[in-house]
Amino acid sequence: MGITLDDRSLVACQALRTVAPPSTYVRDPMHTMLASGGTLQVEIFALLKAVRDVIPDAWGTWRDRCSAWRTGRRGRKPPAFLFSVARKKATCKASHFVGKASGCLAVFPLIRHWVHTELRPSGMANAAARSFEAMAKMLELYMQGKRTCGRS
């Protein structure tokens, strides 16, 4: 994250040049991890991209794996929707997995299990699998810290 120069911004206004720009910018960790284009979405995309040589239709495989799984709420789309053809196109265009935080969190344990039980033992997409595992551990530690501190 950074600051982008925009000649139409307030900072470009000569009268405001005496006002100091912010010295820090803080964003809560959950948005960094889970918001659109967050670490989880980037890692899921990288993982699916890395396995496409070995599993050409990884999207279809995940759509099939999630097709029988339903959410507990009425009106919510099943997790298989995250792996639809339209989502695949949107994901490839965005260069990160396109899905809301709740959907990504729903499939996260399944993908993590897949990495742990299938990809890592076979050596498939090893770099992407290791990167996903590191991100998963970071997310797990963050969530554990939130529970320990009594926040949810």
Overall average residue pLDDT: 82
The global form is: elongated
Strand residues, percent:
under 5%
Q: List the domain count as a whole number.
A: 1
Work out the helix count.
6
> Using DSSP, what is the number of strands?
0
Low-confidence stretches: none
Helix content: 40-55%
CA-to-CA gap between the ends? 26 Å
Give short descriptive properties of this protein:
152 residues
Report on the structure:
- The protein is mostly helical.
- The chain has one domain.
- It is built from 6 helices and no strands.
- It has helices at 29-34, 39-50, 58-67, 85-94, 101-122, 126-148.
- Helix 2 (39-50) runs antiparallel to helix 6 (126-148) and helix 5 crosses helix 6.
- The chain is elongated and about 60 Å long.
- The relative contact order is 0.13.
- The mean pLDDT is 82.
SSE map:
Layout (H helix, E strand, L loop, with lengths): L28 H6 L4 H12 L7 H10 L17 H10 L6 H22 L3 H23 L4
Helix pairs in contact: 2-6, 5-6
Short description:
The chain is mostly helical and 152 residues long. The protein contains 6 helices and no strands.
